[in-house]
Amino acid sequence: MTNFILRFLVVCLFIFSCLVNAQIKKIGVPFITNYSPKTYKAASENWDVLQNSKGMMFFANHFGIMQFDGVRWSIVTQPENKSMIRSLAIDKKDVIYVGAQGEFGYAAQLSNGQYKYTSLVKLFPNLAKKFGDVLHTIVVNEEVIFFSNEKIFIFKNNKIKVIKSDSSFDEFFTIGTDSYVLDSAKGLLKLKGDALQPVTGGQQFVGMNIRKALATKEGMLLLTQKNGLFIFKNNQIKPFVTEADYLLKQNQISTGILLPDGYYGIGMRQAGLVVIDSQGHLIQHINKQMGLQNEYVTNLKTDKEGNLWVTLKEGISMIQISSPLSRILDTSNSETKIYCSQIYQNKLYICTGNGLLWLDWEAYKSGKQENVHFQHISGMSENVWNIGVYGNSLLAFEKNGIFEIKGNSAQLLTKTNGAWQGIIIPKHPDLLLVGGYTGLYLLKNINKTWVYQIKIKGFDESSRVIVTDRDGNIWVAHGYKGIFKLKFNKNFDTVTDYDFYNQKNGFPSSLFLNNFSIDNQMLFGTTKGVYKQDSKSKKMIPDASFKKYLGTENHIRLLKEDHQNNIWYVSGDNTGKMSREANGKFTTEELPFRKLRYLYVPGFENIQTTASGDVFFGTQDGLIHYKKNGNKSYLSKYKAVISEVKCIFPKDSLLFSSRYDVLPTHDISSGDELAPVLSYANNALHFSFASLCYDEADATKYEYWLEGFDPKWSDWNLQTEKEYTNLPENEYVFHVRAKNLYDVVSDEAVFKFRILPPWYRTSWAYLLYLALFCVLIYAIIRYQKNLAEREREQLILNQEKELLRNRAALNEQKLALEQENMAIMRENLEATINLKNAKVASNTVNLIHLNEILLSIKELIGKIDKKNDANVNFTLLTKINRIIDHELQGDQHWNEFEEIFNQLHDNFMQRLKTSFPELTPRDMRVCAYLRMNFNTKEIAPLLGISVRGVEDTRYRIRKKLQLPSDANITEFILNF
């Protein structure tokens, strides 16, 4: 029995926890994404919505079936009569059934991406065509039901059965696997097979104008257009009273949907959407004031991710009802940049760039958002940086000073040069230390009122972040300089000293440092993780416990401890919660807060927590509220899709596309349609792709890989298109996959294709090239043979000509040689003759001169007379002797000889004198005679000296010529 009780309690606790954790949020407004007609570029009216097995969204638009893949909108098909589509349904094979005006049929996707519409009305010519809008299209088991006010058409096994009404049909709805029809005269009828059967008590439904029926535990919930909600159970209809009746009865219900966890979504024509729980409590009212772009709701559907899609008279909206995050929205307030928030005495205060605002928090969270608005605190209109409770006072810190908030107004405590924040000085609860733009200020609590005391001396740095540690030390962080640890005097009116810490003390950088007090321990946020001070070395070192959870690569922008001792953090772009376990370890959770990426005001990241579990995030996009629920799945699988493939040349020649306004026009020469074969002229392709994850679709990243061309996957990026140009012939597979906001990687999408080689690289071209090559080789061989024969004949002819030419040249050489020899002989003869002539001339001159001398001597001798006295004779003999001496020593004949000699011997005398200037004229004469190959005996009489004298002269000449003793002077002279 005890075990049974324990099991029962555990089951009850589990069920209760699921109910608690799986509720749609009541606080705040869910995130809404609006898609206007300008966005999807189609008609404004949309009447239905569905999602296929892949996750693709389709909408019944006035222009046709509209598709949305998370990135692109397109009309994929239209009914044949081009009428407005009113309803859609889909079967297990993703065939879309369409109900339009006077038309119904189905659309199936082809392998090239196109949707082919088939009209069922046209297939059956005998089918009665007099019907209006097909308001509902439902797939039940193997049947497809098309409902209009005039007729019901049942399509099964390629046959259509028609059910008519004697009056008219008002509405059609399904409960589970049962289908019901509301007849204007007979009331509620149940469809069985191809017949309508009355429902017990169904007559009560006549005139109720029911717009939707939902299955609940209490019975069938009926949504009437103007009379609110009713429960049909045990054949009785009872009103279902809700907190939203004032809205539902005045604004005409148009549709409804059963939401997860037993909640009901009800769409209206004039007031948007309300969400109520099974007890009728109003959970949400989302209208134009709350962010819905139009208040005429035509249909409601949830997708696989839990998002609620709302089709409107003008536009489409997606509401993230499953998200634990919501916006504290007030359309009367245009302030969205939040620096801080605080709940005090059931009021929610927010610090903005335009003053301090507040609203009644208890009224707001109870569901009265429409009537609760933010109000300005009078007296504050500048940037309010911080707000906090100090003692029994609520203080705000603003650009102009420090304010105390009382009621709806602010009282200036002191005007300062900007005030950032304040902290109570440890062990001195009556002293408040305030950080300002240019230093610190001291306030004292006197009679429960904070009174300004003094601007603290000795420290003039901007003090935006002030934290105290367990030892009562006061730390100030300056984001661009470093960390200051302050020391005060006893009165706390002067900073007597401080320790300064920056990169030199162990921090990875001196920039963007911050300090936090977690579990009474001083921690520091840096660009490389969480640091702490080593107690021994006083150096700043990484904190090992936080390193395990937050790493060392992210900028720690904020650490905040909540009432349950969990630690909230902003690390890099991610926000998360470290939940403390019983063993002292932590588990981290980041996925629910990925939507906060890039929303914080840089440098003013703020998270406010409450004891009840409410968490507020101040962002550039307003105040965001978080309360945990279990309804949101962050790791759901989804698919990436290739939306369109086209050839760039020729321009926009499509290979794959679901757009209705285009048709694939590629030239598939062969092969499977799923792997088109393209000509080489189409070797430049453009791929468009998307992911079927609609939560923050703009944040989804993609990577792609063209197998056969790219070596590996690309880097993750936000690009949803990729072009490839000048692709060589090959078989290719284009792969793409997505990674959503929660880092979940999608299933892969692929597109196969093959590019043919250019005509000049085809097999036939290569065969032609081979044949041409063979012909060319044959022609070359023949040409070479002919050329060789001609060359041989020409060679023989050339050799004969060369032989004749050589003979003629040889004869010419012989003749020239003979002529040259004859010239040399002639020159030698002429030289010999000239020499002989010269000698003859010289000798002739000498003979003539000697004859003249002899005649002179003869005359003188003739004058000698024996009769003459001896003196006279002696005088005559003396004169004769002088004549002879003069002739022997005279140079006149020698000069004549030298001139002739130089002409015959190439200026021998001049060259010899130039080379050996020490030679005397007599030496020169001896050398000349030696050149004429005269011997010593022949030279002696020519010089009028003895043979011994000639030898002495030759000896002197040898010395002057610097000849060695074994050298022959005559040989040297002859060769000079």
Automatic annotation (TrEMBL):
Listed transmembrane segments: 763-781
Leader sequence residues: none
Keywords: Coiled coil, Membrane, Phosphoprotein, Transmembrane, Transmembrane helix
InterPro entries (UniProt xref): Ig-like_fold, Quinoprotein_ADH-like_sf, Sig_transdc_resp-reg_C-effctor, Tscrpt_reg_LuxR_C, WD40/YVTN_repeat-like_dom_sf, WH-like_DNA-bd_sf, Y_Y_Y
Keyword Coiled coil applies: yes
Domain HTH luxR-type stretches: 916-973
Gene3D superfamilies: Immunoglobulins (2.60.40.10), Winged helix-like DNA-binding domain superfamily/Winged helix DNA-binding domain (1.10.10.10), YVTN repeat-like/Quinoprotein amine dehydrogenase (2.130.10.10)
Keyword Transmembrane helix attributed: yes
Pfam families given in the database record: Y_Y_Y (PF07495)
SUPFAM superfamilies per the UniProt record, alphabetical: C-terminal effector domain of the bipartite response regulators (SSF46894), Quinoprotein alcohol dehydrogenase-like (SSF50998)
Residues in coiled coil: 787-827
Gene Ontology MF terms in the entry: DNA binding; phosphorelay sensor kinase activity
GO term, biological process aspect, one: regulation of DNA-templated transcription
Stored PANTHER family: HYBRID SIGNAL TRANSDUCTION HISTIDINE KINASE C, TWO-COMPONENT HISTIDINE KINASE
Protein name per UniProt: ABC transporter substrate-binding protein
Source organism per UniProt: Flavobacterium geliluteum
